[in-house]
Write a structure and sequence with these properties.
167 residues; alpha+beta; minor pseudopilin epsh fold; 4-stranded antiparallel β-sheet; 1 helix; 31% helix
């Protein structure tokens, strides 16, 4: 008579399988942390580019309508806006002159090199109807990188990296 052989197989995970899973989880967590850090820097670059585009649009608007505009930055709130020097009514309904926020991920640091004495507004930049802009520096800081928007010697806006090189 044949005797049945019992096939005993142990169930569970081997040490190698557990180590592979731990390594995969570690790699994924490093990727998530680095992508979160990169998003803040990417957002800072985006906000600096958006800021330059809006300032250039307002400069064009100043030339077209023959009005001077004031750029007002509230670095505590992380926002900026434009208003007409002549009258608030002309630009009140225009989307170009709305209050813009840079977001929580980006820190806005601001410096004006020629401060205009205009009542209770400490720092403002004048964008004249001739296309001239008061010299300033706006720094958009992410987690590791910062982008600086300045008015260069030719009176044009320029975006610099943290080493001062034009981007």
């Amino acid at each position: 008579m044949l005797t049945p052989t019992l096939n005993h197989r142990q169930s569970g995970f081997t040490l190698i399988e557990i180590m592979v899973v731990v390594i995969i989880i570690g790699i994924m967590s490093v990727a998530v942390v680095s992508s979160l850090t990169g998003n803040n820097d990417r957002e800072a670059r985006l906000q600096a580019s958006r800021f330059m585009a809006v300032v250039n649009e307002v400069r064009d608007e100043a030339i077209i309508v023959g009005d001077n505009f004031r750029l007002i930055v509230d670095d505590n709130a992380g926002s900026y806006r434009f208003e007409s020097v002549r009258s608030q009514a002309s630009s009140a309904g225009d989307a170009l002159f709305k209050n813009r926020f840079v977001g929580e991920k980006v820190e806005l640091d601001w410096q004006v090199f020629e401060v205009l004495d205009d009542g209770d507004i400490e720092q403002n930049v004048l964008i004249s109807s001739l296309g001239e802009i008061t010299p300033f520096e706006a720094r958009f800081e992410g987690t590791e990188l910062s982008y600086v928007v300045v008015v260069n010697e030719e009176g044009q806006l320029e975006r610099l990296d943290k080493k001062g090189v034009s981007i």
